[in-house]
Amino acid sequence: MTEKPDVNQDQGWYYLRGVISRCHETAKRKGWWEKYKYLSRTSSDFQELLPDIIGSKLCLAHSELSEALEEVRNGRGPKEVYFSHTLMDEGGVRYTSEEKTMKVERPDGSVAYLKPEGFGVELADAVIRIFDLAGWLGIDLAELIRLKMEFNETRSHKHGGKAI
After folding, report:
1. Which of 117, 129, 132 is nearest to 67 (CA)?
2. pTM for the full model?
3. 55/5 Cα distance (integer angstroms)
4. Which candidate, 24, 22, 49, places its Cα nearest to that of 35?
5. Which residues on adjacent β-strands are paired with residue 115?
6. What integer pLDDT is reported at residue 39 of this predicted model?
């Protein structure tokens, strides 16, 4: 058996920890944790709300996976990335426009940043939400991924004959 990597020394695991931290810090900065910032982690309220907080955050991660499935169901290729923005026509009806680039110049010369879309983008969104939750909970997800991968190396082919 190969020697297990030291999660504290290996640059890949160190980098992954940084990505996890960045996902959580960005979510905090964008307001996704504001309603919990005054909640003391040692309070009984925190312990009571924890299952609901975790449940809602896991549902959001799952919703990103559902959006990935919808991309496939709509005939998009798994590597296809496109950029969209919602516009309003003269009658006040909203519609979505698709572009091939993330930045477009507005008529006034300013730049608009369009939302990336596609199967892979939705997978990335799911991972970002999972990393955000792990960051908030203080879970060392890099170490747990390393640990789980190490265990998976010991498992039998298809884990003993499972179909899927």
Report:
1. 117
2. 0.83
3. 32
4. 49
5. 84
6. 87
Q: How many CA atoms lie within 13 A of 2 on its CB side?
A: 8
Task: Check residue 163 and give its pLDDT.
Answer: 86
The count of C-alpha atoms lying within 13 angstroms of the C-alpha of 52, restricted to the half-sphere facing its C-beta, is 6
Distances (CA, A) of 126 to 36, 103, 129, 133, 161: 21, 23, 5, 11, 29
Most distant pair of Cα atoms in the chain: their distance: 67
Task: With beta carbons less than 8 A apart as the criterion, state whether 25 and 31 touch.
Answer: no
Q: In whole angstroms, what is the distance from residue 49 CA to residue 137 CA?
A: 13
Amino acid, single-letter form, for residue 60: L
- Which residues of the chain have a pLDDT value below 70? 1-9, 87-89, 93-97
Contact 71, 117 (CB under 8 A): yes
